[in-house]
Amino acid sequence: MAKADRASRDQAVESLYAKETAALRLAENALTRQQLSDVVYEPFREVIKNYRRLLRQTMKVTAVSDSTQLQLRRTSRELTEALAKVETLNTELRSLQQEKDEIFAMAIHDLKSPLSGICGLAQIISDPTLSTPDEHREMGADIHQLGGDMLTMVADLVDLYRFESGPLVFPASEHTLTGFRDQIAGTLSGSARRKRMSLVFKIEPSDGIVTVNPEAFVRIANNLVSNALKYASQGSVVTVSLQARSGELHFSVTDQGPGISAVDQKKLFRKFARLSARPTGGETASGLGLAIVKRLTDLLKGRVWCESELGHGTTFHVVLPCA
Question: Which CATH superfamily is domain 173-321 in?
Answer without folding.
Answer: Histidine kinase-like ATPase, C-terminal domain (3.30.565.10)
